[in-house]
Amino acid sequence: MPSAGPVGAAPLLSVSDLKVHFSIGGGLLSRRRAGLLKAVDGVSFDLRPGETLGLVGESGCGKSTLGRAVLRLLPQVAGRVVWIGQDLAQLSHEALRQKRQEMQIIFQDPLASLNPRMTVGEIIGEPLATFQPNLPVVAGKKMVQDMMAKVGLLPQQINRYPHEFSGGQCQRIGIARAMINNPKLIVCDEPVSALDVSIQAQIVNLLMDLQRETGMALIFISHNLSVVRHISHRIMVLYLGKVAELADRDTLYRNPRHPYTQALISAVPIPDPDVERNRRRVVLKGDLPSPLKPPSGCIFRTRCPKATEICAREVPPLEAIEHGHQVACHHWRE
Amino acid sequence: MAAQGNGQTPVLAVSHLETVFATPEGEVKAVNDVSFSVNAGEAVGVVGESGSGKSQIFMSVMGILATNGQARGSVKFKGTELLDLERSELNRIRGVRMCMIFQDPMTSLNPYLTVSRQMTEVLTTHKGMSTADARKASIALLDRVQIPEAARRIDMYPHEFSGGMRQRVMIAMALLCQPELLIADEPTTALDVTVQAQILELVSGLRRDFNMALVLITHDMGVIAGMCERVMVMYAGRVVEAAPVSQVFHSPQHPYTVGLLRSMPRLDETAHGRLATIAGQPPNLQRLPAGCSFRDRCDRRIEVCAQEVPPLRPITPERSKACHLQAL
Amino acid sequence: MAVITQHGQIPDLEETQGRSLWQDAARRLRRNRASVASMIILATIALLAVFGPLLSPHPYDELAWDAMGVAPDFERSFWFGTDTLGRDLFVRTMYGARVSLMVGIIATFVSLLIGVAYGAIAGFVGGRVDAVMMRTVDILYSLPFLFFVILLMVIFGRNLFLIFVAIGAIQWLTMARIVRGQTLSLKRKEFIEAAHAAGVSPMTIIRRHIAPNVIGPVIVYATLTVPEVMLTESFLSFLGLGVQEPLTSWGALISDGVKNMETRPWMLLFPAAFLAVTLFCLNFIGDGLRDALDPKDR
Fold first, then answer.
1. pTM to 2 decimals?
2. Which of the residues in chain B have pLDDT under 70?
3. Is A251 an interface residue toward C (CB < 8 Å)?
4. Is residue A230 within 8 angstroms of chain B, CB to CB?
5. So what's the pLDDT on residue A2?
6. Which H or E element spans position B235?
7. What angle in degrees, to the nearest 10, is found between the helix axes of A197-214 and A167-179?
8. Of A8, A168, B215, B307, which has the fewest CB atoms closer than 10 Å, so is most exposed?
């Protein structure tokens, strides 16, 4: 399966051992010791131009936190994020702000991500005004209307307000805003989860079309494995802040090696009664452990059907088992 | 839609149900002339998107519509008409013989009372049990829904449970009186997919054990494929297609159903091109087009679609559809 | 390459005007009859305050030796009667309206300016700065207000301007708390995060994104602050700490009126009625604004 971008091209984004920890509780006068929430605990990956990396996982896996940490919207505790050869941590506030033209984000709740008191034109035009303050008004307006047409909105609705649009249209507005400065990367944080199924397909198509046209990279975060599989080139499965498995999309589906990936795939309902009736599901035991008190060794062991003694003792390293396929499991061979 | 004629009274028989809401901008018909029935022990899926009216049908059935809503028509539970029943009579049926669970467990769980309080109350009120017996029965049911350490956890408050466990508690509460019909409104939409699989398996098992009829309201066709025997597809307050599950998936007869199935990426797909989409936006119930509500988004529309609302007509004894086209 | 989703529509090229949230709110407010009636009544009182004295032949400070403490007398144009010194009560009530309304509006404005700036900064910056700023507010809150005002009056004399400042300086505390709360909840909204991610600078975020969304509750609270301020001023006047004679306010008039309540009830009746009606109207308008601006109605 061809991966996007020329082979051997330098990666656009290079994340090494990224960690994001939050301290919970504690405080100035509190006697309770602060607990440590390791939302993202050592994630590494590369992203090439024109590629889509899907991030999947369930509640508490840290995928949204990871997406925001890559864009430096959240403070990270450790690890490096290198963007086009530049370590983002070394940049000054102002230099980082300038970089924001190149890396953008779209959100899960389409309406909440738009300022209700600004018109659509003002919302989409804001990034233009921020980085090209001397742009003449007429030129700016034309760019906004062109972008509106490109994402499937009627340009003459430029003076309307977000609450006058449907959910799908609001998401298009968000996409237009993210695209107006020609970014090289867009982080999509559950962009279709809040939309009707038929509208999801429209937005997925739109993102794929825009990617084909502009060659931008996408990080697509979702809990919906079917959608992620459709849009991504590679998929990373996260569990409680750690990478369980990373592979290209067909390999992940046809040959998942991590028990969690296997359980996830077997749990996704498929719209075909014959298939559904004959499925054998991998059922996970128990509940998600508290992220404040993760199990020793492999964090997945409390629910894993293959867990043995070694899993409680040693954290399984993320190893490459074949080209482009990494797994963090002691028992991946079975 | 024809009942599976085996002579028994259907558990639920809805006939020409219309639910109207009075809003400042005018009347909105959320449910528009809907008729169907559910037989004992059957699992029926109701699928649709926003504005389809799928939830409002069952809010009308349970009598829990918002104050500005009014239901007309006929809703019969085992032969008893529910729509203008006395409150006290209605309370003997709903919550006891006919129960509903929701997407958000916190809508039916009182955050200020312990689970044991809430569960034993149901049994002492409706089944006249003693408090001790009610507690034993509640713990047994919590075990059945796989809540670990049920005897200890029953004294906890709802917020102390995780999302998946709260959903199980809600299911347990709904099953306390062994209802003949369970209506589940998007019960797993807010849950992780692995938890969803557990809950759905649980509900399947319970349905078999209690011989309970199940109505499963969802937007996820995959869930319907795995859980239901029959399915009803709703659009803009009307039923557009109703059929046994295998027939709907293999040969859908309404353009909306076709569009819906084609626009969903399947995990086991092999092609990764553009998804077939349904053009346009979800329906605005305050400004529905004349004739068929789906016509603006339909790629197979013909002239008559703009003039007449297509009635729900049977095409075989088991299937019906609401479309002017002869066949797809 | 456009991805058109509107199906088979011929686009009209006229730009449609949007319907902003303010317009929605204005529409809802217009539908609230109590608010509309209150606004009309309030406007009438304000007009009377400005133009009323022109209607009457009597100046507000002229002592009529032959008409001291006289009941309402239409022949001699003493429409509300006179006080014990023979001054026309109608004109004095109108002058009192001017003072009371001015104090209400100006003091509220002062509290708004200080409170909004303080609260927005505390809420936006957060962390320790916020904690320190808010603890300061808490400490100031616990100081006895009356004491402070009396102190000011004693030191600087009974100056009308001083009353504005003193009362405004007290009211800003609650305004600051409200604005801080609003800012805190806004900070977490996704469109603020989107603005950060789009590279908008923090000052611009406060100006363009936070301020317009905070104004709603601020307006509502301001409308409800005006009656509070007016009552406070009335109380001060009642205690004899308010405006200097011959200038008067409703509070001062009520104070006089109470002393003569049994023999000359009109001296109490008219200013009290005006004050009460004004307070009612302001409260109705405040309620109406709150309902109109309530985001849950969207």
1. 0.84
2. 1-7
3. no
4. yes
5. 38
6. strand B230-235
7. 20
8. A8
- Quickly count: other Cβ atoms within 10 Å of residue A313's Cβ: 12
ipTM of the assembly? 0.85
Cβ of C199 and A28 within 8 Å? Answer: no
Average pLDDT in the A261-279 region?
89
Which neighbouring-strand residues pair with B233? B47, B241
Angle at CA A68, nearest 5°, toward A65 and A71? Answer: 150
Provide Rg for chain B, Cα atoms: 21
Beta strands B320-321 and A103-106, pairing class = unpaired
**Three-class SS state of A53:** strand
Task: State the pLDDT at residue B4.
Answer: 47
| Direct distance between the N- and C-terminal alpha carbons of chain C, in angstroms, rounded to an integer | 35
Distance CA C3, CA B311 (A): 34
Task: Sheet with A185-189: list strands edge to edge.
Answer: A103-106, A185-189, A217-222, A52-56, A234-239, A242-248, A325-327, A319-322
Asked if C282 and C226 count as a contact pair (C-beta separation under 8 A), the reply is: yes
Q: Write out the two tokens for C9.
A: 């529509």
Which residue from B180, B58, B173, B53 is spatially nearest to B121, judged by alpha carbons?
B173
CA atoms of A333 and B209, how far apart (whole Å):
39
Average pLDDT over residues C95-122: 88
A163 Cβ neighbours under 8 A, 6+ residues apart: A111, A116, C21, C298
Residue C5 has pLDDT above 50, yes or no: no
Cα angle A221-A227-A231, degrees, rounded to a multiple of 5? 80
Q: Are C236 and C163 in contact (CB under 8 A)?
A: yes
Edge-to-edge, what's the strand order for the sheet holding B12-23? B26-38, B12-23, B69-77, B80-81
* Gap between the Cα atoms of A49 and A216, Å rounded: 6
Secondary structure of residue A280 in the 3-state scheme = coil
Q: Nearest-CA distance from A224 to chain C in Å?
A: 21
List CB contacts of C136: < 8 A, sequence separation 6 or more: none
Helices C250-259 and C89-125, axial angle in degrees (round to 10): 130
Contact residues on chain C for B284, CB-CB shorter than 8 A: none
Q: Is the peptide bond before A6 cis (omega within 30 degrees of 0)?
A: no
pLDDT digits (tens, 9 = 90+) for C21-46: 888 888 888 888 889 999 999 999 99
| CB pair distance less than 8 Å for A205 and C3 | yes
User: Residue B19 is inside which H or E element, if any?
Assistant: strand B12-23
Q: What is the pLDDT of residues A150-181, one digit of tens each?
A: 999 999 999 999 988 988 999 999 999 999 99
- C6 → chain A, closest CA residue: A152
Which residues in chain B are contacts of C6 at CB distance < 8 A?
A: 280
**The one-letter amino acid at C111:** S
Dist. CA A204–CA B107, nearest whole Å: 33
| Start-end of H helices in chain C | 21-31, 33-55, 89-125, 127-142, 145-156, 160-187, 190-197, 202-205, 211-238, 250-259, 266-293
Helices (H), B16-114: 54-62, 87-93
Contact of A271 with B222, CB cutoff 8 Å: yes
* Mean pLDDT over each residue of chain C, to the nearest integer: 83
Q: Distance between CA atoms of B31 and B52, rounded to whole angstroms?
A: 8
Does residue B185 come out as left (phi exceeding 0), alpha (psi in the -120 to 50 range) or beta?
beta
Chain A: touching chains (3 or more CB pairs < 8 Å)? B, C
CB contact residues (below 8 A), chain A span 283-312, against chain B: 283-284, 286-288
Contacts with C8 from chain B: Cβ below 8 Å: 296
User: What is the enclosing helix (H) or strand (E) of B80?
Assistant: strand B80-81
Q: Cα–Cα distance between B122 and B216 in angstroms, integer?
A: 23
**What distance in Å separates the CA atoms of residue A102 and residue A94, rounded to the nearest whole number?**
14
